[in-house]
Specification:
Structural class: alpha/beta
Strand content: 15-25%
CATH topology: Rossmann fold
Radius of gyration: 17 Å
Oligomer: single chain
Number of domains: 1
Shape: globular
Strand order of the largest sheet: 3-2-1-4-5-6-7
Number of strands: 7
Order of helices and strands: EHEHEHEHEHEHHHE
CATH superfamily: NAD(P)-binding Rossmann-like Domain
Helix content: 40-55%
CATH class: Alpha Beta
């Protein structure tokens, strides 16, 4: 009996923010489907542990630690990826951070750094990836947006504005490169349980009670499975914008 190859065998995927949460789950899921994965984040120890788990399961992983908001670091990341396997098929621009509070209540001292990682760094990576993929005639770019950028909420308004901008840039990029075989997808998750909430400054007072009414929340693996589904479609099929919520989440 002949064993069928895994759906993503031979493909190379680059995932930013892979040390935890959605990025970590995406790396595991894509690797399980046969992709060789490039793992990017600042916390190198976590990336190394993830790479060991992937290789122990007969997968291939490359660790590239660094700051996803820094353009020089992103240049090096692309160079390392192409030197490793000589190709790039999937990019998941996942690195980012949240920020509790609206325009009136969030901390303006972190506005610039938030936009640097959530928007500028992500779009620069998408630009480099799109340039390479357009030349090879195929590829998938997944931009992580948010429902907070789909329906702007006064409780996370400044963060939501960065995700609104990411979605706009991703759609603009799609229109530039779709005719050359490159698919650009914006994925907008609702509440996903991860360390994201703690880093963003959410707590039981400003998040916990309101989220409790939504019932079972999303897990990072739920988002990962959607991304794997998107990049596994035939070349002529493109899911270019997806909003993914817990069933009970009515807003945003």
């Amino acid at each position: 009996m002949t064993c069928q190859p895994l759906p993503l065998t031979g493909k190379v995927a680059l995932i930013t923010g892979a040390s935890a949460g959605i990025g970590h789950a995406v790396a595991l899921d894509l690797a399980a489907q046969g992709a060789s994965v490039v793992l990017q984040a600042r916390r190198v120890e976590r990336l190394q542990t993830l790479a060991q788990a992937i290789t122990a399961a007969s997968g291939k992983a490359l660790v590239c630690a660094g700051d996803a908001s820094d353009m020089a670091t992103i240049d090096t990341l692309m160079q390392q990826t192409l030197a490793w396997q000589g190709r790039l098929d999937i990019v998941v621009a996942n690195a980012g951070r949240g920020l509790a509070g609206g325009v009136m209540t969030s901390d303006p001292k972190v506005w610039a750094s938030l936009f640097q990682v959530n928007l500028t760094g992500a779009v620069y990576l998408m630009r480099l990836a799109a340039d390479y993929m357009a030349k090879q005639g195929h590829g998938d770019i997944i931009a992580l947006g948010s429902v907070a950028g789909h329906n702007i909420s006064p409780f996370s308004g400044f963060y939501g504005s960065s995700k609104w901008a990411v979605a706009a840039a991703a759609e603009a990029l799609r229109r530039e490169v779709c005719g050359r075989g490159v698919r650009v997808t914006t994925l907008k998750p609702g509440i996903v349980v991860s360390e994201f909430q703690d880093v963003a400054g959410y707590n039981a007072e400003n998040f916990g009670r309101s989220a409790a009414k939504f019932g079972t929340l999303l897990q990072p693996q739920d988002v990962a499975k959607v991304i794997t589904f998107v990049v596994s479609q035939p070349a002529h099929v493109h899911l270019n914008e997806i909003v993914l919520r817990p069933t009970g989440q009515d807003y945003p």
